[in-house]
Every structure is written in structure tokens, then in C-alpha cells.
UniProtKB/TrEMBL annotation:
Source species, domain of life: Eukaryota
Organism: Trichophyton soudanense CBS 452.61
Protein name, UniProt field: GTP binding protein
Transmembrane residue ranges: none
A GO molecular function held by the record: guanyl-nucleotide exchange factor activity
Length: 443
């Protein structure tokens, strides 16, 4: 506990403009100055201008790595959270910017490697942050999401957060609320995506209703960033999960007389694809479709299929005639070569299924993929050379794999479509492409 004399000295020392404005002054400040500042802020009886000056000074010190580390090692984080909470007692127009700076400092502190060692999951600080996820105050929710999201660095921690602490429940509740603001949605979606990376958590998130919750966000055109993160969370949730893919393919309405009974949550995602101008959103939806196909259709190679898998594949293509269109975007974009290859593989998988081949033809004709198909098959591929640079090898292997998948796609389309079902112009083109590649077209 600092004496009144030391507090007086501190106030005099802190009031010098050079301390707050000159980084070198903060860098050379003694270590024991930090607890004095924290004590002064915590014990301030008012929340006016003087309090604001102290808090502004504290924020200045907490921007420095030295004092961030000391905050962890000396156990000051709980006090900093109390200060953060106290800022709500002042005028928000004045305290809001200061609170935002403190939030940034707390985010930086929690991202440091030392943080989990001093503040494990089972501690009072974590308990406070978890309680903030259910707060009516947006800034508390945001702070809780950011710090806990930084702590969620490995599978075991993420699993414990869901199974032991149930942190996903208030997060999903936030997504369901129509009055949730963009920043709160952004932080909640980001935290949930971190949690979904741990494989076992996907089933738990699906069971808690995350797919239905994010589907509401796909329709909010005024929040394109939330739409992107919601699409990304959807992809992360359905990865390798037949159960969650089933949830995505569930009808919007259980009323068989309603037109919505023929529309699924995937239908809503495809509707977002059709109306958005955002390439990242379109690509993310394409990757979601690709992940569905990899999970449902590659399972055919295994002897044991989850019950109802084939019915899911049929439902996928029967209810979503335009399901392959997002994959076309993956192929025609040139920014991410690995996504392009992912698209060729997925489109070849879809073409191998009789119902899916019709969706592929729709994609080729609607998404300007035919030219990409011709280019991929015609592109010359260099031979391996001794001492070949790694970049050249990667490029060569990509072109080879893409070409193989494009040819596999053509074989699937020719096998699964009778001469009368495939437009003559396409059939002639496909046969020519196969022959040029040294393949005999299927009869």
C-alpha cells in the first residue's frame, strides 16, 4: 500500500507532460512505478478529469512490453480488470476512448506467452472474464472475448472452455440477439471460430445451435464482415463432421406444407453467395461446399459409412441445383493457388456422382469455368530438373494435380450423363479435351 507521501510524489511525477508524451521516459521508469499508478487509479474517489489523466497515464505505460510483462508476473491483471469495470462509473463520452485503450492493452497482455502460466483457466480472472460474456455491457463482452480468445491457443484449453466452462453458450446467445452490435458480433464469431478448431468441439457447437444462429447473420447485408466471419465459422464447424453437415442440410421449417420445408440452411448460405459482391465471402462459401463434398463423398472409400450418408449426398444435390457454383469462384480466382486446387478436387468429386454431375455442368456454364478447364488441361507442365527451386517444384506439382483433377472431372461428366443429357457442344468439347490429353472418352 503506497503512503500518502508516495501518492503525492506519484501525482507530481505523473503530471509532467514528458512522461506521457515521450516514450523514452516511460522506458526508463522504475518497475515499482506501475503498482503505484494502478493503486492511484483504483483508489480514485471520483471519475472525472483527474481520474482520466491517471488512466491515460496508465494506458501509456501498459503499451510498453516491459510493463505488460510486469502486469502478468506481479499479478496486476485482476486489478486492471477492476479498473476496466470502474470506467463505467464515469461519463461514457469521456471514459469510452480511455476504456478502449485499456482494452487494447489487456488484449496485448493476454497475448503474451507468459499469460497462461500466471492466469490458467481455473482462476478468478478467468471466472470474471467468463461472466463478462453474459454482460449487457458491450465493452465487457468484447474484452472477455478478446482475452479468452487469446487464451484459447491449443486443443485441450479449447475443449475445457466448452465442456467445463460452457463459454460457447453466451457467445451463441449473442449471435441470436437482434440488438447485438457489429463489434460484439465480430469478437464473438472470432472466439467461436478459435474454439471450433479443436475437433471435438465442433459437435458441441453444432448441438448448441451455432448453425441456426449464424444463419441469421448471412441475411444482414449491412454487416458484410460479420457475414464473412459467419460463413467462415460455418465452414470450420462442418469440417469432417457428418452430424453438423446434417444440421446444415436440415429444412428451415418443419411444416411440410410450407415452401420453407424444401429450403435448408445451406439454401440460405447459397442465397448469400448469389447476392453478395464480396469475393472473400463467395470463396469462403465455396470452401464450405468443398468441405461438405470431401466429408460425404470421400467416405465412400471406407467400408463403414455413418448411417444416412448416401441420403445426405442425394439431399445435397436434389435440393440445391446451384450447389457447385461457389466452387467455380474458387477455381476462377487467382489470389490463392491452394484454394484453386481445392476447387478442382471438389468439382471432380461432385462430377463423380450422377446427381452431382448436373450441378457441375451448371457451374461450368454459369460461372465461366469452361475457359479455366481448357487452360488447366492445355497448360504445359515442365519436367523435374536437378536442383529445381522449391517454388518451381510447388508450381509444377500444383499444375499436375489440377490437370489430373480436371481430367477426372471430364471422365465423371461423360460417364454420368447420357448423350441426350449433355449439350452437344459440351460433349464435343469434352471429348476433344480428353483426346488431346491422351485419354479415350468414356462410351
Amino acid at each position: 500500500m503506497a503512503s500518502e507521501q508516495s501518492m503525492s510524489c506519484l501525482m507530481s511525477y505523473m503530471s509532467r507532460p514528458r512522461l506521457i508524451t515521450l516514450g523514452q521516459s516511460i522506458d526508463t521508469a522504475p518497475d515499482d512505478l506501475l503498482p503505484l499508478i494502478i493503486h492511484a487509479v483504483s483508489n480514485s474517489e471520483s471519475h472525472g478529469e483527474g481520474y482520466g489523466c491517471l488512466l491515460n497515464a496508465l494506458n501509456g505505460y501498459l503499451q510498453k512490453d516491459k510493463f505488460q510483462q510486469l502486469s502478468i508476473i506481479n499479478g496486476h491483471v485482476e486489478e486492471l480488470l477492476s479498473i476496466f469495470l470502474d470506467t463505467f462509473k464515469g461519463e461514457d463520452s469521456f471514459m469510452g476512448p480511455l476504456r478502449l485503450k485499456l482494452n487494447h492493452s489487456l488484449a496485448d497482455i493476454s497475448a503474451l506467452a507468459a499469460y497462461p502460466k500466471y492466469y490458467p483457466l481455473r482462476c478468478s480472472v478467468t471466472g470474471t472474464l467468463i461472466s463478462w460474456l453474459s454482460s449487457e455491457k458491450d465493452d465487457l463482452k468484447i474484452c472477455g472475448c478478446i482475452i479468452l480468445g487469446n487464451v484459447a491457443r491449443d486443443d485441450e484449453v479449447c475443449k475445457s472452455m466448452l465442456h467445463d466452462f460452457k463459454v460457447h453458450l453466451p457467445l451463441i446467445s449473442t449471435l441470436q440477439r437482434e440488438d447485438s452490435k457489429a463489434t460484439v458480433l465480430h469478437c464473438s464469431l472470432g472466439f467461436l471460430k478459435n474454439l471450433a478448431i479443436a475437433g471435438d468441439n465442433r459437435e458441441c457447437l453444432g448441438e448448441a445451435g451455432v448453425i441456426k444462429a449464424v444463419s441469421r447473420l448471412w441475411a444482414i447485408d449491412t454487416l458484410p464482415h460479420a457475414q464473412l466471419m459467419a460463413a467462415s465459422l460455418t465452414r470450420q464447424t462442418i469440417l469432417t463432421s457428418v452430424t453438423n453437415i446434417t444440421r446444415l442440410l436440415e429444412p428451415i421449417s418443419s411444416d411440410s406444407d410450407s415452401p420453407a420445408s424444401r429450403r435448408t440452411y445451406l439454401s440460405l448460405l447459397l442465397a448469400l453467395f448469389s447476392k453478395t459482391d464480396s469475393s472473400p465471402i463467395k470463396t469462403e462459401i465455396g470452401r464450405t461446399i468443398a468441405a461438405i463434398c470431401r466429408t460425404l463423398m470421400r467416405l465412400k472409400e471406407n467400408s463403414e459409412l455413418p448411417p444416412g450418408t448416401e441420403e445426405l449426398v442425394t439431399r445435397l444435390f436434389d435440393l440445391h441445383k446451384d450447389v457447385a457454383r461457389p466452387i467455380g469462384i474458387m477455381i476462377t480466382q487467382t489470389e490463392w493457388p491452394i484454394v484453386q486446387s481445392e476447387g478442382w478436387f471438389a468439382l471432380a468429386l461432385i462430377a463423380s456422382h450422377p446427381a452431382g454431375s448436373q450441378a457441375v455442368i451448371d457451374c461450368l456454364e454459369s460461372m465461366c469455368v469452361i475457359q479455366s478447364l481448357c487452360d488447366t488441361i492445355h497448360t504445359p507442365i515442365s519436367r523435374p530438373e536437378p536442383g529445381e527451386p522449391a517454388k518451381d517444384k510447388t508450381d509444377r506439382l500444383k499444375k499436375t494435380k489440377d490437370r489430373e483433377n480436371a481430367l477426372f472431372l471430364l471422365h465423371g461428366l461423360m460417364r454420368n450423363n447420357a448423350a441426350s443429357e449433355l449439350p452437344e457442344s459440351l460433349r464435343d468439347m469434352f471429348e476433344d479435351l480428353l483426346r488431346e490429353a491422351g485419354h479415350e472418352p468414356p462410351k
